[in-house]
Design a protein that fits this description.
The chain has two domains: 156 residues, Quinone Oxidoreductase, Chain A, domain 1; 130 residues, Rossmann fold, CATH 3.40.50.720. The protein is built from ten helices and 15 strands. A hairpin with an 8-residue loop joins strand 1 and strand 2. The chain is α/β, with parallel strands linked by helices and 307 residues long. The strands form four sheets. The protein has a six-stranded parallel beta sheet. A five-stranded antiparallel beta sheet has the order 8-3-4-5-9.
Length: 307
Amino acid sequence: MTKVKAYAAPSEGAPLVATMVDRRDVGPDDVQFDVLFCGICHSDIHTVRGEWGKQTYPLSPGHELAGKVTAVGKNVTKFKTGDHVGVGCLVNSCLNCEPCKTGHEQFCQNGAIFTYGSTDRDGTVTQGGYTQSAVINHNFVVSIPKNLPLDAAAPLLCAGSTLWAPLKRWNAGPGKKVAIIGFGGLGHVGLKLAKAMGAEVTVLSHSDKKKEDALKMGAVAFHKMDKAAFASLTESFDLILNTVSATVDTAAYYELLKFDGAFVVIGADPTPTVSLSTSVGVSKQRVFTLSLISGVQETQDMLNFCG
């Protein structure tokens, strides 16, 4: 084990402090890299506060790591010293179950290992990207294109991968109308990705505060949602992505889907259950589903697309 500089929470809900955390020595299947940039995700706050379950402290959060390779294990052929690399929300899985074999390691049936706050296969607790360096299994390291600056790439490793998965799955592109609920960290990345894919993107929000920003970034329309807005937008969209972490009127938004449309929950909605009319879903062949980040190859595809 090697001690590296880090910012970590010493206890539940405590502010981060400068400290040292352990990183394993480079093994035959590992990539070691200096963490030059790390995005800040709202998940970091939830986790440090213990809002998503009890944690082991000290805990260094951060799952949007970007940096340069400093060493590789003897079995690693994909990466070399000096390469630009990134790590998102995952650092290990069994690699043998059906989800893993089909590129969906985040749904590993034997337990995906997340970048921080997870117990790894060797029994150690994973530490995130608010650290000086990281040692990660090469199967969970992605290459960052040289024309994509590391500081710009870092936020894509969670926010980008979270939006990429449903946009690809539901074929966002030319001729498709996509609505994004919320325009925060996830929402604005969703707008930029969907627009770059060729879709027509509308932003739906509870206020007009971010209207100007959304239109500047390429939204064709921005709607402050009230009774009149819901009525005017009935059956307007092929795909609706809910990116907010607050409770929304899902049933009302569901009515905005076209025939064969899909409503995808991405944000961490605190409401444990949702009530929808099955007759409405059946009569319009609408889909209600949820999505959790991207697998490793999907994340690589997303970075290549952005590069």
